[in-house]
Amino acid sequence: MPELFSFNLIHSDEHARAGAFQTAHGLLQTPVFAPVGTQATVKAVTPAQLIELGATLVLSNTYHLYLRPGAELVAEMGGLHQFMQWQGPMLTDSGGFQVFSLAASRKVDAEGVTFKSHIDGSQHRFTPEKAIAIEELLGADIIMAFDECSDPDDRSYVEKSIERTHVWAERCLKAKTRPDQALFGIVQGGIYPDLREKSARFITGLDFPGYAIGGLSVGETKTQMHEILDMVDPLLPVNKPRYLMGVGSPEDLINGIRRGVDIFDCVLPTRLARHASAFTSQGRINMMNAGFAHDTEPIEKMCGCYTCTTFTRAYLRHLIVAKEMLASTLISIHNLYFLVHLVQQARQAIMEDRFQPFADEFLAHYNTKRK
RNA sequence: GUGCCCAUAGUUCAAUGGCGGAACGCCUGACUGUGGAUCAGGAGGUUGUGGGUUCAACCCCCACUGGGCACC
Description:
There is one protein chain. By secondary structure, the chain is α/β, with parallel strands linked by helices. It has helices at residues 47-53, 62-67, 71-76, 80-84, 96-101, 128-138, 155-175, 193-204, 222-232, 250-258, 268-274, 306-310, 313-321, 325-351, 355-365; strands at 7-13, 16-23, 26-30, 32-35, 58-61, 90-93, 106-108, 113-116, 123-126, 142-144, 182-187, 210-213, 242-244, 263-266, 277-280, 283-286. A hairpin with a 4-residue loop joins β7 (106-108) and β8 (113-116). The longest helix is centred in the last third of the chain and has 27 residues, at 325-351. The structure holds one RNA strand.
């Protein structure tokens, strides 16, 4: 068994990488897409279904689990793996993003963030030390540093924000005590290349077993995202995994892998599924559309997922219109399978030195909505 | 059989003589380190039918059709 947290870069095809990251719950083949299970569940999907559709890494969330049911309770139940019955590699976000995107109100200072719960309005405070303590109680294999994800467009704020994030990163490292969890540092800097470079140099100067790129896919354009990824890529060490947080769409995964990203997570496939939108190789389709009422085809003909090998579009549309919860489950299974397999195919293409044509062909057929 | 009431968008209802609206539903779209939340846009009307009064009728009058209630 490889040393814990070792990253074996198995093969590269230009910037695209195929690797393997050793966690306490198994060897993680990269690139990899992680379904998001915010509240210790990937919404509408059971762990058995996650395994069947090919998921290998699941993300869960510090902010939510701290508020409900409480990190101590999860620890009492034997930790997050045992609690939610996911025995594979798991990752927890630090709560940095959620404090900024969900909390009713918040006050940031040099030491941490005071915020109000979106559930009951109660007041709480996260510091780097507190976030790490919670993540240690939860017990995921990869834990994230407590960072500030600010408005990517506000330069003067981003300047102050990355300074805070950098100090907090050091404090997270110092606060960490468990040897079986890999703490990843997070590069911030909004849409500003010079700030991204500054952040990347600082964060990679600290000894993390992996690095994340945060603060993207929060409203910037695709072009801006690609620019940042292109310039951050050479600043990150080749022998450690890179995690692009919160991304993404099928085209974002391909474009991220092309720029050296190893790990992705995103709520998109499951959220879209709950709103009846399904991925296909041609682009997204809305399964609620009246045109599918009599459609005897599966969502996608060549798809090997449980949903596509079993059910028609007409049936799925019926479930959606009737507001049956099975609709969410079946489309979630399809969307997750689609992304997990897209990334697995990308990995295979990298191994065989044909990633660029693979990526070009996929992007040529996939109808992208957002530019 | 007699009397009274009612009939407006797919549905439930507004509009009382002066440009026919709302809610829900329906049809589209959005959603990126998750609020199964939500948001945005669109279509939809010979105002039950036929007459009449009026410059002008969903609105007033008459008949008819259909529905409801009460009494025989």
